[in-house]
């Protein structure tokens, strides 16, 4: 099967997003830990009404995103039709959760001016991940519709295991 440009375009973006989602998990965990411990006026952390919800969606986006990228690694290794559909749907769900965290990051930026550097880094990573994940989803969905961008369902050899054989057993 000719791989086209799909695998070459998706693999680096997949690795980049995986690393960024792991960084988001780290920063969101640190901020959530300080929020739960009541250290809300820590020098690197200044909360407002949107902070708790932003941290919850950021850590959720990080965990779901990292797991989605592990499924994406399996798809890039196998690069088959059946892994494409499942990976595209998981990536779309991940993008939706990241977009919710993006909206809360925008609200967090608007409400608070004296944020610490860790919270600002987390907001920046969520904003960047929203767009890189959208690009990843668009590349995967391009593979759903065309052989040129990936293993499409319209390939002529999809589902063909070999020459047709006579069925075994008795026929009535």
From TrEMBL:
Q: What is this protein called?
A: Uncharacterized protein
The record's annotation in InterPro entries points to:
AWPM-19
Q: Does the keyword Isomerase apply?
A: no
Classification via Pfam families: AWPM-19
Q: Which organism is it from?
A: Rhynchospora breviuscula
Q: Which UniProt keywords apply?
A: Membrane, Transmembrane, Transmembrane helix
Spans traversing the lipid bilayer: 9-30, 50-72, 84-104, 124-145
Which interval of the chain is the signal sequence?
Answer: none
**The keyword Transcription regulation belongs to this UniProt entry's keyword annotation:** no
């Amino acid at each position: 099967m000719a791989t086209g440009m799909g695998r070459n375009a998706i693999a680096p973006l997949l690795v980049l997003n995986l690393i960024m989602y792991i960084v988001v998990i780290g920063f969101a965990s640190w901020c959530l830990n300080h929020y739960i411990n009541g250290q809300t006026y820590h020098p690197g952390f200044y909360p407002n009404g949107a902070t708790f919800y932003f941290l919850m969606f950021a850590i959720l986006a990080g965990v779901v995103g990292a797991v989605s990228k592990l499924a994406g690694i399996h798809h890039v290794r196998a690069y088959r039709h059946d892994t494409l559909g499942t990976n595209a749907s998981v990536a779309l769900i991940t993008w939706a959760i990241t977009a919710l965290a993006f909206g809360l990051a925008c609200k967090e930026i608007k409400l608070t001016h004296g944020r610490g550097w860790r919270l600002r880094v987390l907001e920046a990573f969520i904003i960047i991940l929203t767009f890189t994940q959208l690009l990843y989803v668009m590349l995967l969905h391009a593979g759903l519709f065309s052989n040129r961008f990936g293993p499409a369902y319209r390939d002529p050899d999809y589902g063909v295991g070999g020459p047709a054989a006579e069925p075994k057993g008795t026929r009535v």
